[in-house]
Specification:
Strand order of the largest sheet: 2-1-3-4-5-6
Structural class: alpha/beta
Number of strands: 6
CATH architecture: 3-Layer(aba) Sandwich
Radius of gyration: 17 Å
Order of helices and strands: HEHEHEHEHHHEEHH
Strand content: 5-15%
Number of domains: 1
Length: 251
């Protein structure tokens, strides 16, 4: 894929001092992040990453391994002008963002911060049910019961649902087949976030994200469930503004 296929929104303004790179949950593309553009400080560019086979009429191969997704995303991001970057990944996207951060550090261009959202520490054995191989009806019911996020309009429209399922299955197969090695540790700050009503999260284990970095590690809890991040986008504005302010103070 061309870099532009991975990165549907690229901001080349000279005034950009910080890039926010976003990685979506299973089944998601760039669209869930697009409305955040208006919430960003002027100096911050929003850069959502779109995995192959989402939001396009092109026939693109669906990737089923977190490592391969991270390779493609990193290659695309490497074509952009150099800017300090914050990586933000939600659910499956958190695993991808973590792997992209490792690749950035190996290349000598570490992110200024990694934000992992709605995802258990990726080096721990997963407690999540394995759903990717279920028959369609059971698959839809199980995904909705575990994570939510399948709107009734999709469940009631078989044709729309049939278009969504292959990408959602591929993403869940990637998530279910992934477990990170605890080393090499990152050096960048890491912030783990989750919704207090997220049934997929074991709160007591979230601080263990800190085992994957030698940098500062924090855990933030927000109101809401698995998709809390998209219910209150102003939370992200405050978070990104605080990171930007810290960078300003350091320069």
């Amino acid at each position: 894929m061309k870099p532009s296929q991975w990165l549907p929104r690229i901001d080349f303004r000279p005034s950009v001092a910080l890039r926010l790179v976003c990685f979506a949950h299973a089944g998601g593309g760039a669209a869930p992040f697009m409305r955040w553009a208006a919430e960003m400080p002027e100096r911050v560019a929003l850069c959502p990453v779109r995995r192959p086979g989402r939001e396009t009429a092109r026939a693109e191969p669906l990737l089923r391994e977190v490592g391969r997704i991270a390779d493609g995303a990193f290659a695309a991001l490497s074509t952009l002008p150099s800017r300090p970057s914050v990586l933000l990944g939600h659910s499956l996207g958190a695993a991808v963002a973590f792997e992209v951060a490792r690749r950035m550090e190996r290349a000598g261009r570490p992110p200024v911060e990694l934000i992992v959202s709605a995802k258990m520490p990726v080096h721990l054995p997963s407690r999540a049910p394995r759903l990717a191989g279920l028959p369609d009806a059971q698959f839809v019911d199980a995904v909705d019961a575990t994570y939510g996020g399948i709107p009734p309009v999709l469940r009631d429209e078989p044709e729309l649902l049939a278009m969504l399922l292959p990408a959602l299955r591929a993403d869940l197969a990637a998530s279910e087949g992934y477990c990170a090695t605890p080393t090499p540790r990152l050096s960048c700050p890491l912030r783990a976030c989750y919704g207090k009503d997220d049934a997929a999260i074991v709160a007591a284990e979230m601080p263990r994200w800190g085992e994957l970095t030698s940098g500062r590690a924090t855990v933030d809890v927000f109101p809401g469930g698995h998709f809390y991040l998209f219910d209150e986008p102003h939370m992200l504005r405050h978070l990104v503004a605080s990171i930007d302010a810290r960078l300003r103070a350091q320069t």
